[in-house]
Design goal:
Strand 1 and strand 2 form a beta hairpin. By secondary structure, this protein is of the alpha/beta class. It is globular. The longest helix is centred in the C-terminal third of the chain and has 23 residues. The chain is built from 13 helices and 17 strands. The two termini are about 20 Å apart. The strands form 4 sheets. A 7-stranded mixed sheet has the order 4-12-11-10-7-5-6, with helices on both faces. The protein has a 4-stranded mixed sheet with strand order 1-2-3-15. Bound molecules: pyridoxal-5'-phosphate.
Length: about 400
């Protein structure tokens, strides 16, 4: 463990806090045995005063690290002005955020919600409704094996890994899954009832698997030929994670709808469904809503996230760090030989697929002061904040290499 750098801020310590949680929280998570109490930049500290290098960024969420001064200021300024009044009134922060998303993407209109699942739920509902408004009762969704889209019933039904939905059946009907990357198999599932194709440009939870070259373009062509909509789930890949502001930019095609969450708020809960003008009109007043959607605090913070990424050069810095990380992981894999199956990913969303289960590597990294996560049983995932420095990546990779070698 790293030496304690600052005094403890919780009298209970890691074990005491975990024990309290075990008695009152629903036991649907299996948290690591540390309670994090504060963070700054790419470092976080636990309740025993141990410090860690955070190379997982709150599962690809803390895109500007922890307590970035400009995000703290944006939140403080908004906190002194207006917190919440609902969508029965117009509030400016959500308009300012939508303006930024529209300026920097294919989208013409944005709906705000609170999470990735809700953003995808809205996208799926929009797809059905859009067809319905054309006198057409298309309702089927074609999604992909290994995909992950959230935990609401519609989104978990669209999720292409049975472990996420086993025991919750009956699922939402009409969802079909093709192997990720297989255009011929996708085409075979499309028909007169298809409302939309839903796909991640790079599968995050499914093991950090980038779409094969030409796959997204092929899906665009299939969707156009069939007459269904194309929905890109950029909840994990969006907001600079793969080297461009949105991953779809690297494919040369745009979807009809893109969903965002995770990094959009830099750690504040917010989701967004971003649609082209052609399809956005499907959701007229009364068809869809969210009490907290467009909340001024969340939107003010998300505006600051985009401003720092774009105007302060963090997006460009993250792209450089992503290229460095990819290169270094390749060398690490070569040195480790048989223990590593492959390294893959894009930008600052990268993975090492191991021959053995990855949980032990995650534990050994944490014990040496570095936080990483899995993405499937044998995959170690790295999703550091975009502000990460080369020296921090070097420090983390040295720990990761030893942790894999010790397996
Ligand atoms: C691609 C993708 N879509 C949707 C979700 C669900 O997001 P949330 O947990 O915010 O509902 C996730 C979460 O990991 C995700 O990675």
């Amino acid at each position: 463990m790293l030496a304690a750098m600052t005094p403890k801020i919780s009298p209970d310590g890691n074990a005491g806090i975990a024990a309290r949680g075990a008695s009152v929280l629903l036991q649907n998570y299996r948290p690591q045995p540390i309670a994090l109490v504060r963070g700054q930049g790419c470092r976080v500290e636990d309740a025993d005063g141990n410090r860690y290098l955070d190379l997982m960024g709150g599962i690809a969420t803390a895109v500007l690290g922890h307590c970035h001064p400009k995000l703290v200021r944006a939140l403080e300024d908004q906190a002194k002005r207006l917190w919440h009044v609902s969508n029965l009134f117009t509030t400016e922060p959500q308009i300012a955020l939508a303006e930024r998303i529209v300026r920097h993407s294919f989208a013409d209109r944005v709906f705000f919600c609170n999470s990735g699942a809700e953003a995808n739920e809205a996208a799926l509902k929009l797809a059905r409704r859009w067809h319905r408004d054309r006198g057409d009762d298309r309702f089927e969704i074609v999604a992909f094996e290994g995909g992950f889209h959230g935990r609401t019933l519609f989104t978990v039904s669209a999720t292409g890994t049975p472990a996420y939905w086993k025991g919750f059946e009956p699922l939402v009907p009409g969802i079909r899954h093709a192997p990720y990357g297989d255009l011929a198999a996708t085409e075979a599932l499309l028909g007169d009832a298809t409302a939309a194709i839903l796909v991640e440009p790079l599968q995050g939870e499914g093991g950090v698997r980038p779409a094969p070259d030409g796959f997204l373009r092929g899906l665009r062509e299939l969707a156009d030929a069939n007459g269904c909509l194309l929905l890109f789930d950029e909840v994990q890949t969006g907001i600079g994670r793969t080297g461009t502001l949105f991953a779809y930019e690297q494919s040369g095609v745009a979807p009809d709808v893109m969903t965002l969450a995770k990094a959009l708020g830099g750690g504040i809960p917010i989701g967004a469904m971003c649609a082209s003008e052609r399809v956005a009109g499907a959701l007229v007043p009364g068809t869809h809503a969210s009490t907290f959607g467009g909340n001024p605090l969340a939107c003010a913070c998300a505006c600051a996230v985009l401003d720092v990424l774009i105007e302060d050069g963090v997006l460009e810095h993250g792209r450089r760090m992503g290229a460095f990380l990819g290169e270094q992981l390749g060398k690490l894999a070569a040195r480790l030989g048989d223990a590593v199956v492959e390294t893959r990913g894009a930008g600052l969303l990268r993975a090492v697929e191991l021959r053995e289960p990855a949980a032990g590597v995650v534990d050994r990294c944490r014990e040496q002061g570095v936080l990483v996560i899995t993405a499937g049983e044998r995959v170690v995932r790295l999703a550091p904040p975009l502000i990460v420095e080369q020296s921090e990546l070097e420090e983390g990779l040295a720990v990761l290499e030893k942790a894999i070698a010790a397996g």
